[in-house]
Amino acid sequence: MYSHLLSEFTVQRMDDRCIRCQVCERQCPNGVHEYDKGLDRMFTYEEKCVGCQRCVVMCPTKALFVRSHPSEYRMNASWTRDKFQNLKKQAETGGVVLTGSGNDKPYRIYWDHMVLNASQVTNPSIDPLREPMELKTFIGRKPDTLKINMDGDVPKVESELHPNIPLASPVLFSAMSYGAISYRAYKSLAMAAKEFGVMFNTGEGGLPVEMRKDYASNAIVQCASGRFGVDQDYLNSAAMIEIKIGQGAKPGIGGHLPGEKVAQHVAQTRMIPQGTDALSPAPQHDIYSIEDLSMLIYALKEATNYEKPVSVKIAAVHNVAAIASGIVRAGADVVAIDGLRGGTGAAPLATRDNVGIPLELALASVDRRLREEGIRSKCSILAAGGFRCSADVLKAIALGADAVYIGTAALVAMGCTLCQKCYTGKCAWGICTQNPYLVKRLNPEITSQRLVNLLKAWSHELKEMLGGMGINAIESIRGNREHLRGIALEEWELNVLGVKGAGE
Amino acid sequence: MNGLNMKFGWRDNFMDGLRPLHELENFSEINGLRAEIDAQDLKHKELNDLLFHLVKKGAREINIKNVFGQRYIGSRIFLPDAQDKVKIDVYNFPGNDLGVFLGGHYINVHGNAQDGVGNTMDNGQIVVHGRAGDVVAMSMRGGKVFIRDNVGYRTAIHMKEYKDKVPVLVIGGTAQDFFGEYMAGGKVILLGLNLKEDEYHKANYIGTGMHGGVIYLRGNVEEHQLGKEVGVRQLDDSDWEVVTKYVQEYCGHFDASEQEILAGKFQKLLPVSSRPYGNIYAY
pLDDT (tens digit, 9 = 90+) per residue, A315-363? Predict the structure, then answer.
């Protein structure tokens, strides 16, 4: 514990409601609550509280409140409380301040500055409850032209078709590795993806062998700088392969999965010794250029007999459009862009909060650049980083995305409350931990159903909004900026987004 | 065909102008388990198409002649149901990523190899009768690689191991910088046979960020050449057993004297911690 730090949260117990059942004590992995038998009293160590609200919702008599600590330093617009506290922690340890989940700083969220269109009078809107509405999406390279010959009455496609993966709805689960998240959380994502007909992404922690038979056909497997768990069977079992170059939460840096999270089964899946740090270097050391990237793309295609699309995931950074062009020219079938607000299991706070650009601007400029160069059809674009609701998804597709990755939203559906302490390995919700006592809190049968419900609800909302615009297929809104208008945006922002202002 | 409205044109050196298998078959001969390919005019993918085709037709010992820079040799061969492995002899100069992701096959190179030999290799064996380029055995997780002469930069970077699946890399010559960087497992033997007596190994930053595995280094190295995550030890009996075993194998592949090699000065490089970066964070 740090000295002279204000607690972040205060825990209030209404003693007339508390029945000393000690549920809070058992539920808290941080040791905030402690029962003293002799005194028949609960003690509280609020300085340890991370504000995850687990004890609050589990308390059978609703005797607990957790809220931000009311103590305040003198108000100072420059020296805010978090700057203050981090500085004190560093003065004490000399360490890099860690954090988890996505950027929480008030950068402009462009989704909240764009509005969608709807039909009025001049073309009829469509009711998705009565009329067919198509959300099916195919991810992968498309042919430049489609040549069809009639063989008698049977049409035959003459053009060369590239491998594509079908999605029932344009929403996929973002990369979260086994090791960073628990087996049950990981399996929940796999089960939900399979049931709903979308994909989950293994992250770079490998795909446990026993899961391959049932779930590999809904898996996007990653090949990243640590190359954990990568072998021919892993690559060939999957639906798609993703080369991870960067991550929105921490562009330009690698990852350190701490040794205490590398339990036996995690070690086996990653093929590294148990208890050692799983270090993912910052770059992939066989990729120092676009030409080298091309070499790995084709190495993966060679290893899978050209049967799988290969995706390249990058963080949204300043020259993202030019980089994306290079990636497509290097042979990638999919470009995944992870924006400033993308989540993580652990990242240095300085990087998470200050490096990269907002997804909306990156996505719009990549889509435009690829169209200008005439190579947009050669790849699909997956957008990732901070999707909170179905409207964000639809706006992203209107800005040019083929589909979106959701990570944080899926975690929240499973129980996460964004306490941002993923890196401690003590997740009270059993998601971001390898502690068997905590992991047991998740039941994949139930959590996968919650994820399926989320996909179902968002898909229905997408259909409603599409119908309102008089559109009956998600294809027709893709890159269709005419259906977006900006609100309270500067001219340069409208230009980058390629969107008119509202009323124009 | 180039796409329509293409601003900078579209050129794909890898995929353009590929010939179908029935044309490629003219570059090969197959006779039961044995086959031969003349790679003189074959593109990267064509060579691998043909190689995999011959394997599917039953060939298990394949000679590839006139190889000039074709990439990824051996990595296409994935036969999950077949137990028998393929033996490939490559003459002379394979291209980058030789045996990338290799799944248990045997590759003999009669000449020099380029970058990425045995990249993320899973099992099997690669023997190079010559030198190899950068990132040899990167992220290798099983099998063996023998290089007769020198290797380039970042050799054995991020090699790993799990229980009894331990990759082995033996290098006859010397290596360049970042040798064994980020190593998480595996056994690497650097013999320095082409160094003069009292000459030092070339590499700096040896074993930087190393957190698993072991490097046996024959010959001289100065302390400043080692990464700060590396400790130097003397070899004990079990180490000598390992070194002797693989030196014998090295001598079996190449013309070298076991006695002479083992008479040299060996030292053992180990990571000082399996968690080199455990203490750099403020929680």
Answer: 999 999 999 999 999 999 999 999 999 999 999 999 999 999 999 999 9
**In a domain? residue B162:** yes
The CATH number fitting domain A137-141+168-473, selected from 3.90.1150.10, 3.40.50.300, 3.20.20.70, 3.50.30.80 = 3.20.20.70
A151 SS3 class: strand
What pTM value is reported for the model? 0.95
Structure-token pair, residue B212: 């698993």
Q: Is the ipTM of this complex over 0.90?
A: yes
Does B108 fall in a domain?
no
Residue B254: domain span = 131-271
The DSSP line for A285-354 is TT-SSHHHHHHHHHHHHHHTTT-S-EEEEEE--TTHHHHHHHHHHTT-SEEEEE-TT---SSEEHHHHHH
Domain residue limits, chain A? 9-95, 137-141+168-473
Q: Is the pLDDT of residue B7 over 70?
A: no
Helix axes A359-372, A320-329, angle to 10 degrees: 50
- A226 contacts in B (CB within 8 Å)? 139, 158
pLDDT at residue B3 above 60? no
CB A49, CB A30: distance < 8 Å: yes
* CB-based contact A95 B12, cutoff 8 Å: no
CA A456 and chain centroid, separation = 18
In chain A, which residues have their Cβ closer than 8 Å to the Cβ of B135? 285-286
| Assigned domain for B88 exists | no
- Closest-CA distance of chain A to residue B195, Å: 27
Stated as kind and residue range, the H or E segment containing A431 is: none
Name chain B contacts of A270, Cβ cutoff 8 Å.
160, 162
Cross-chain residue pair B72–A89, CB shorter than 8 Å? no
Q: Does A106 touch chain B (CB under 8 A)?
A: no
Task: Tell me the pLDDT tens digit for each residue of A133-146.
Answer: 999 999 999 998 88
* Shortest Cα distance, chain B CAs vs residue A272, angstroms: 5
Q: Which residues from chain B sit within 8 angstroms of residue A285, using beta carbons?
A: 135, 138, 154, 157-158, 181
Options 3.30.70.240, 3.30.70.20, 3.10.100.10, 3.40.50.720; CATH for A9-95 is: 3.30.70.20
Q: What is the CATH number of the domain that holds B214?
A: 2.160.20.60
Which pair of structure tokens corresponds to residue B188? 């690497």
Residue in chain B lying closest to A274 (CA): B162
